[in-house]
Amino acid sequence: MSETIDQPGLAERVLEFYDTRLRPELEADHAGEFVAFELECGEYALASDPDGAKRRLYQRLGTGVNSTVVEVGGSDAEKRAHPRVVEWPRLGPAESDELVRKAVEFYDRELKEQLEPQHFNEFIAIDVATGHYALGRRALEAFDALAALDTGGVPVLLRVGGPEAFRYVG
Amino acid sequence: MTRGYVNELRQAIVLLTVHGPFGFRHVEAVIDTGFNGALTLSAGLADRLGLTFMGKSAVFGATERPSVQSCYSAQIDWCEERLRCEAVDSALPRCLIGTELLGGRVLTIDFGEARSVEVR
Predict the structure, then answer these.
(1) What residue spans of B1-120 are helical by DSSP H?
(2) Looking at the partner chain, which of B21, B58, B62 has a beta carbon nearest the beta carbon of A104?
(3) Which 8-state DSSP code applies to residue B93?
């Protein structure tokens, strides 16, 4: 990918919380498990799978869960350096708008000319933090393919030739 | 086959079950052939079901500018199958079923006396 793009501070907030609050408590005994946590209140729950961790957090907090899910790293040096974020929290409106604006700019500048002849109308999921992207004929194919690259940022879904991924007409 | 009805607002309605990590909900969804995605979620449904947030998406709607909405992964029961599909958050009171879910299907809407909907 050609360049790194600044992203709103969500990734930094998530990783800082994980590094300072959770890593010291969890990595020794829970490597390979998944931790769901709420950035706002600091509560967390562990389970062997991401949905299980979210369920436990939900049961603990009741309503209004906006959880982040991270795979707890262990002795693997790569995982310790770059914890795998399985699910990001939802962003606020201003952060969302900024993220999508940057994704569209990146698409127009770096990808449009290259992709439109061969991949017109396909979905494209872009990580604006790193410039990585993945294509798919269905939206979830593109999201899943980008997630498999484990790029570490909130994906933005556009459509090649779009840029909007979906349309309501009428 | 999925069956439904035409309501008093002349909307084609079908019953859909949406599953997530926190459980499932039966919802009445409007078939919207002007929407080219799979499913939009009524307000708050993603939270209640704990659906997995996949990312943000740009959506072109009734306004001149694209809006930015959250995109989730949902499991739904649709035409006797359990499918995983994308679901776009919305502030609307009802879910919408778009043409992505109608691909390969035949949609029949009877706006006459029967007021019936069939997807097969």
Answers:
(1) 45-49, 99-102
(2) B58
(3) S
Looking at the complex, does the CB of residue B24 fall below 8 Å from at least one CB of chain A? no
Distance of CA A121 to the CA centre of its chain: 23
Which pLDDT tens digit goes with each residue over A106-130?
A: 999 999 999 999 999 999 999 988 8
Asked whether the beta carbons of residue A140 and residue B86 sit closer than 8 angstroms, the reply is yes
Taking only residues 112 to 131 of chain A, the set having a beta carbon closer than 8 angstroms to any beta carbon of chain B reads 125
Rounded to two decimals, the ipTM of the complex is 0.90
Q: According to the 3-state scheme, what is the secondary structure of chain A?
A: CCCCCCCCCHHHHHHHHHHHHHHHHHHHHHCCCEEEECCCCCCEEEECCHHHHHHHHHHHHCCCCCCEEEECCCCCHHHHHCCEEEECCCCCHHHHHHHHHHHHHHHHHHHHHHHHHHHCCCEEEEECCCCEEEEECCHHHHHHHHHHHCCCCCEEEEECCCCCCEEECC
Q: Which two tokens stand for residue A127?
A: 């990580």
DSSP label at residue B115? -
End-to-end CA distance of chain A: 38
Residue of A nearest to B66 (CA): A164
Please tell me the pTM assigned to this model.
Answer: 0.86
Q: How far apart are CA A10 and CA A128, in angstroms?
A: 12
Distance CA(A89)–CA(A99), nearest Å, equals 14
Q: Does A153 touch chain B (CB under 8 A)?
A: no
The per-residue pLDDT for range B32-57, each reduced to its tens digit, is 999 999 999 988 899 889 899 999 99
CA distances from residue A4 to A7, A78, A137 in whole angstroms, order as listed: 9, 20, 26
A75 vs A46: CA distance, rounded Å: 18
